Structure formats: C-alpha cells, structure tokens
Amino acid sequence: MPTEHEIRARNAQFASKARAGKNPVNPSRKEKLAKQAPVGLWALGLILFVVVGGVVFEIVRLVFL
After folding, report:
1. What highest taxon heads this organism's lineage (predicted)?
2. How many domains is the chain built from?
C-alpha cells in the first residue's frame, strides 16, 4: 500500500501535469498497441511459418526418403 506521502506526491504530480496542459495519465498498454502497426507481427509470423515449415518438411523428407 502506498503511504499518504506517496499518494499526495502523485496527486501533486497529476495536478501539475494537468495545469501544464500535458496528458496527466500514461497511456495503457492496450492504447499503445492500438496505435502500433501490426505489420511487424505479421512479418514475424510469416518468417516463423516459413522457417518452421521448412524444418518440418526437411525432417519428413529425411525420414521417408
């Protein structure tokens, strides 16, 4: 549990940011991910699919041929 001093310090920090016109609240993880382009994730998935598929194909080819 935060102490009363920590709560007052956070409240003061929040108020000073709000007075300065800045966003007083840090964006959540969900908001950050919503802004991020998913192209990197698709590219990583495609690369993993090709690599894992190639390894599996080679193992199957070695076993059956």
Report:
1. Eukaryota
2. 1
